[in-house]
Amino acid sequence: MAASHMLFCVWVLLLFMNNAAGETRHYKFNVEYHNVTRLCHTRTVLTVNRKFPGPRLVAREGDRVIVKVVNHIANNVTIHWHGVRQLTTGWSDGPSYITQCPIQTNQSYIYNFTITGQRGTLWWHAHISWLRVSIYGPIIILPKRNESYPFAKPDKEVTIMLGEWFNSDPEAIISQALQTGAGPNVSDAFTINGYPGPLYNCSSKDTYKLKVKPGKTYLLRLINAALNDELFFSIANHTVTVVEGDAVYTKPFVTDKLVITPGQTTNVLLKTKPEFPNATFLMAARPYFTGQGTFDNSTTVGILEYEHPSHHNHKSSKNLTIIQPVLPPINATGFVANFTGKFRSLGNAKYPANVPKTVDKKFFFTVGLGTNPCLKNTTCQGPNNSSKFAAAVNNVSFQLPTIAILQAHYFGQNGVYTTDFPTQPLIPFNYTGTAPNNTNVMNGTRAVVLPFNTSVELVMQDTSILGAESHPLHLHGYNFFIVGQGFGNYDPNKDPLKFNLVDPMERNTAGVPAGGWVAIRFFADNPGAWFMHCHLDVHTSWGLRMTWIVLDGPGPNQKLQPPPSDLPQC
């Protein structure tokens, strides 16, 4: 009896340990060409496993994920696991020339990381040039076994990825723009799960359809994978309850319209109508834009179709009334500020908001556009046809090095980057007032170095140079707390008095308001080299990016792991 009891105890312990440790999940991502036709244009698109959008990556909190990425295309490629903390596994983060050299043609690399303390919706995408326009897919992190959501279990879960479609090759578009200094051509359509929908020419058959039953609850995992556009989203005649942002649970709130920046995810609960409604409802997404340049001013539409209880003796869906949603105006900055202000962390014992209450280091970064002069004896097509478009953080436009910053940091290689990134603007000015006459940026590969576990406060201030614009900033390797935001110039004396240090939202991507500022806090508890950049890829290409280098801590689990043996070489 005693022996069998002991065996049972050992079995329970092993089961518990197995649950706590999680499983190992293996994926193979073949990056390959695939012909895709949209809007009557057939184009050879870069994809993973010939899927557009790409395959789902599903894991549980605590699981180890091993993805072998094989490059079968002519372009260099890397994959970023957007929002995954990558604790001590910075070599698997993915941004080219920051944490790794890219995977070259016919080469492979194994990304190996554990999902620690995260659950919800994230996503993966290529992280070199503009390749993420078609190389992207969802990451679905389920709670640990025997754990539940902090809301009623939905009847079904559905992923909705918003994207952008170009009729011509996006790599040619950005390459030409960087050469001429002009703004790049904009996309030809937005997409819902890869489909533009019926409002575009030659596209009615390419429409995403979500079939639902009356009286059910659906968890919609919304992801903005668009290249250069923040997007409004709405479903006609339906409200949704927001329950999560960037894989962090929120205090639930109800809305009929959302805004999602590129890089962000939002989970919402959709409760369908109790009876068959005799109507078809459209879901739609279109851009939020405040800048001065051109943009894709179009709308992608999908269909929310109710399943009829009897399946017969009813009007065909073609005869049903079609109801369209009402989206905010293109430049509805007030709506955006109001909506983002509703996000609050749960901030309870199980899901605490561990926001730094005191701060070791304060940083003030301007983010915005600028210019570079034309090369001697050449004309260019940027502002006033006498300069090239650029973008910068604290007026430093970041130049990618030719070997990865993390490698240079780990192996002590000099000359790859400098550690003199300015902690505040070198020349203060009226950031949201009349722009200065000289809009030229400095160019360089500069980083900020942080000791392990430094508590950081960073205020990011938009500027009016070449137009005030919203900038969704993404920080790799971290979540951060959004403790404050506002319009105009940040006031270091008055604005901190209004900071939320109780239940601020925790995210990996946050919009710096057009003509305003956002304040974030985080503990630098993850050693490595961590990219921070605008998630509008045109701004990233122009240089709105920088790198934080976080030093090792004293403990064994506070040090960057050694590089893997198959780390690509430049």
Automatic annotation (TrEMBL):
Domain spans labelled Plastocyanin-like: 31-145, 157-308, 422-551
Documented EC number(s): 1.10.3.2
Keywords on record: Apoplast, Copper, Glycoprotein, Lignin degradation, Metal-binding, Oxidoreductase, Repeat, Secreted, Signal
Co-factor requirement: Cu cation
Principal localisation: secreted
One of the GO BP terms on file: lignin catabolic process
Subcellular location: Secreted, Extracellular space, Apoplast
Pfam families: Cu-oxidase, Cu-oxidase_2, Cu-oxidase_3
Keyword hit for Signal: yes
Cofactor binding notes: Binds 4 Cu cations per monomer.
SUPFAM superfamilies, alphabetized: Cupredoxins
Keyword match Signal: yes
Gene3D superfamilies, sorted: Cupredoxins - blue copper proteins (2.60.40.420)
Matches recorded under InterPro entries: Cu-oxidase-like_N, Cu-oxidase_2nd, Cu-oxidase_C, Cu-oxidase_fam, Cu_oxidase_CS, Cu_oxidase_Cu_BS, Cupredoxin, CuRO_1_LCC
Signal peptide boundaries: 1-22
MF GO annotations: copper ion binding; hydroquinone:oxygen oxidoreductase activity
Reactions performed catalytically: 4 hydroquinone + O2 = 4 benzosemiquinone + 2 H2O
Annotated GO CC locations: apoplast
Known role: Lignin degradation and detoxification of lignin-derived products.
Record family assignment: Belongs to the multicopper oxidase family.
Record protein name field: Laccase
Source taxonomy: Eukaryota, Viridiplantae, Streptophyta, Embryophyta, Tracheophyta
